[in-house]
Every structure is written in structure tokens, then in C-alpha cells.
Task: structure prediction
Amino acid sequence: DTEVTQTPKHLVMGMTNKKSLKCEQHMGHRAMYWYKQKAKKPPELMFVYSYEKLSINESVPSRFSPECPNSSLLNLHLHALQPEDSALYLCASSQVVSGTVYEQYFGPGTRLTVT
Amino acid sequence: LAKTTQPISMDSYEGQEVNITCSHNNIATNDYITWYQQFPSQGPRFIIQGYKTKVTNEVASLFIPADRKSSTLSLPRVSLSDTAVYYCLVGDPNGGKLIFGQGTELSVKP
Result:
């Protein structure tokens, strides 16, 4: 199974709402990532988890809160978002081996619209 | 982190070979070069990765000169379904941090 699944596929939320994005993989990968992608732009790294611990936070605003409850799951909790946060949110996973870079497997993304 | 530069767009015709070159002048000794493909409203998909010389798999080849300051992704005999955005990345081995460049939008015409 080389699939990364993300739910929901689409999400519309108001600026006062609280919602969560979910990501799951069963490839035994111990690194998981959140990216944000605006239209016609490359994906931008937000967070990296390695062995369920947050290892990289790319200065993301606190209205985005990641969580890695176990090695297969990754959540992104959203609160008080702004319209400019509307984007495709991508989850990815990979092996973790120091000194090299392994391919990342991406999910299909969640299309988020903030109204 | 090494920055990459690639053409914004390229056009090709079915059956042709397409070569997309990426510049990464300040690549570090431990960095790998990786290419991803992305279709609209989908996550990127890994194509190929290399460190030096030439790497080939079932879908593409990657050519890296000795100085490693550039790399070329070669797609043999493209089809309409190869129309996508192609990203060149130079990988930081510390923590798996990958920075996507602006990408090359490839359009394959009949």
C-alpha cells in the first residue's frame, strides 16, 4: 500500500470556525509533512514530523496547529483562519534516514476555502 | 538551502523526447536532486532522484554533470498524459526538508 489518504477532499469554513484536516499512511514511514499550495504556485513546506515529534515548523502562524497522534496519522487543526489561507493542503510521508533524502509520497490534498 | 531555477514552461508534441534542465549553482555536497510531477488538483508524484552522473528508471532519465550545478530530466517519447508541472528539488538531508522551485509547466500537443 503506497497510498497517502487525506480527508476531507474539500472544506469550506468561516473565519470563526474550528476544523481539522486528517492524513493517514500505512507504509511504515516515520516522517510526515504538511504543505500548503496556492494556485499556480509550488507547494510550500509548513511542518515536518519525524518519529511523531515536530522537527520543522516553517514559521507557520499559530492558527495552524499540527498533531501527530501516532506513526500513521497526521492532523492539522485550523482555527480563526483568514481568507488568504484558502489553498490546497497537501500531506506527504517518507522514510527517515539521516544523511540522505527519500522520496515523499503525497496525498491528493484537501481543497480549503475560507469565507 | 540550494535554490533551483527552471524554465517556466515548455511545449512539445507527442512522441518527442523532452529535456527539462534545472540550475542549482549552490548545491551542497550532501544534496540529492529529485524531480516530481504534478497534475492539477493532485499531490506531486516522485519521478526520479540522483546524486551524480546518470540515473534511469522506467519513466525517465536524469543526467547530472560532474560539477552538479545543473541537472536534466529527460522524458522519452512523451504523450498527452505527460502534460503536467515538473518540479526540480535539491534536498537537504537534515530532517527531510525539501524546497520546491517554481516548476516547469510542460504542455504536450497532439
